[in-house]
TrEMBL record:
Compositional bias of kind Basic and acidic residues: 42-70
Gene3D superfamilies assigned to the protein according to its UniProt record, in alphabetical order: 3.30.1340.30
Keyword Lipoprotein: no
Location in or out of the cell: Periplasm
Source organism superkingdom: Bacteria
Record PANTHER family: BON DOMAIN-CONTAINING PROTEIN
Ranges where the BON domain occurs: 76-144
Protein name, per record: Osmotically-inducible protein Y
The gene coding this protein: osmY
Pfam families from the UniProt entry: BON
Organism encoding this protein: Idiomarina loihiensis (strain ATCC BAA-735 / DSM 15497 / L2-TR)
Length: 146
């Protein structure tokens, strides 16, 4: 756009000077033709620059959206992990210190040791109550007594 804005006045000045200086019709037509070519070239460059800018803006938008989505998933997983740990902690029958919780893409991984098979089921059932949990992989084991 800048090139076009600069080319137009320059072309008009050149045409005006040639006309005022008493140039022949052929010379005037030649100058007008050059001015039109310069204007067309400026328009083409402006159009190309605008198209390139649109493409770069779209690439930047896509990149930003993907990064925001990735960050959102990470935050969501961290929130899910925290909530699952909280519900397990609130249960007086489970020793939350012996249960590990990790979350990846909404899939909760439970591991660690508990006192009974019923505790394994309780931990899984509690985890299932947390909003956002898509699935549970339960690797909790019953602690062996010595």
């Amino acid at each position: 756009m800048k090139n076009f804005k600069m080319a137009l006045p320059a072309s008009l000045i050149a045409i005006s000077m040639l006309t005022l200086s008493g140039c022949s019709d052929a010379e005037t037509e030649k100058a007008e033709s050059k001015a039109e070519s310069a204007m067309q070239e400026a328009e083409d460059k402006t159009e190309n620059a605008m198209q390139e800018t649109k493409e770069k803006a779209q690439e930047a938008k896509s990149y930003t959206e993907q990064k925001a989505e990735d960050a959102g998933e990470y935050v969501d997983d961290a929130v899910i992990t925290t909530k699952v740990k909280a519900v397990i902690f609130e249960d007086d029958n489970l020793s939350s210190m012996d249960i590990n919780v990790e979350t990846n893409n909404g899939i909760v991984q439970l591991s660690g040791f508990v006192e009974s098979d019923a505790d394994i089921d309780t931990a899984e059932n509690l985890a299932a109550t947390v909003k956002g949990v898509k699935d549970i992989e339960n690797d909790i084991q019953v602690r062996e007594e010595n």
